[in-house]
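Hi W., the NAP complex you wanted:
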Amino acid sequence: MAGLLAGKSALVTGGASGIGRATALAMAREGARIAIADQTEAGAAETVAMVNAAGGQAIAIGADVSREDQIQAMVARTVSAFGRLDCAFNNAGIAPRNVGPAGQRTHEMSRESFDAMLAVNLTGVFLCMKHEIVQMLAQGGGAIVNTASIAGLVGLPTATNYVAAKHGVVGITKTAAMEYAQDNIRVNCVNPGYIKTPMTDPTMAERYDQLMTKVPMNRLGVPEEIAEAVVWMCSDRASFMTGASHIIDGGYYAA
Ligand code: NAP
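Structure:
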């Protein structure tokens, strides 16, 4: 299949839903063979079926990004299926309401909620990069995109744990970009604003009008608007881009 990622092998975490699913579909459209990972293999398999129905080639992997043994196995399975790993999209993530009550300020947040968030949204990205980079060094290069957020660049009241994790993702992206710049491995992150996915549906049901006052375009983004940028950042067209935060937010950060 011809396209921006023709002949490449890619891995997407959080590929069963939202931004991850849209990106897997866009990568397949652009010619990549894709390993679609999520914490349940059944969820990933649904995206695989969509890729296959569109004429692409994909495999499903069940892997919890907070478990190093599972991440190591995920990378090994991808390489065993496709021979190499050219593009990795480290995107799996959770929202504050997944690890504690919504609406808590810093002094109200439990240590457990903070740690549980970091385990997935920050340590998970670190573990994925660690094992992907081993393979990319062995094969002579690759491109990594991590999903951060506008919450990796600004504060967000009642989301201390999420903001800490996403600022961390921006920081480890910059650091890895510097460490592997001479090894033909590019490392960038994408920083979405408010995007319509299952993650944001509950918040939007409660506070859509209030939150949209902060977005100059006055609407939610859709996952496909993130996917297009990730595909390009993974492609050879982005050959001089590394260590960057690519903001896609309807103008939120500019305002
Ligand atoms: P989503 O639709 O909920 O997708 C996230 C996926 O990650 C889900 O399939 C989820 O599985 C999976 N996941 C959660 N914990 C995992 C774990 N420990 N191991 C493996 N997979 C796990 O959410 P989304 O909006 O597409 O979010 C994707 C990324 O974008 C996240 O990193 C999020 O922080 C970031 N982001 C989203 C927005 C937004 O407005 N939507 C804005 C900025 C950044 P389950 O469904 O089974 O939990």
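The chain has one domain: 9-247.

W.
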